[in-house]
Amino acid sequence: MSASPADGVVDAECRVHGLMNLHIAGGSVLATSSQANPTLTILALGLRLADRLRR
Prior knowledge:
By secondary structure, this protein is mostly helical.
């Protein structure tokens, strides 16, 4: 997840850079970190994306 395509695959809305209609929800959009379990963050990102797509 990044602001520019050079640094990541998706933007803050989980939309793939350069494609208006392709979103990715899941742990693959997070940076790798071994200090904490990302389950709740992944769940929050999925719910936020679902809400955005529903609107």
